Amino acid sequence: MEQRSEKDYTVAVCLSGVFGVLGIQHFYLGRYLEGSCDLGLSIFGYYSLINGEIVLGVVALAIDAIHTFIVTILLLIGSFRDGQGKMVCYPGQRLKGESNA
Question: What is the per-residue pLDDT for 99?
């Protein structure tokens, strides 16, 4: 039986939508490695742009943006897990094995 995350769905979706490229939603959900990778990729992308490596910076930021978009969609449809492997559920979502009561 799947377990429901204690993390708030609305907070996770808002963090992903607003600060997603920085990986803040991953830190909130306890996915620290993924959050660190997102943050590092953003810093690297902006650093590259500032130092004139336009193509490298754009590629890094594009990869980060695509990843953030995918994570946000997974959160919205209730298919994303927190750092403990529990589902981050939207309001009213039923998990496999849950009763209707």
Answer: 67
Number of domains in the chain: 1
Residue matched to tokens 């490229």: 21
- The per-residue pLDDT for 57 is 97
Domain that holds residue 17: 9-88
In a domain, residue 51? The reply is yes
- Residue written as tokens 């009213």? 92
Which CA distances in Å does 77 have to 52, 53, 56? 39, 37, 32
Q: Considering the domain boundaries, does residue 98 fall inside one? A: no
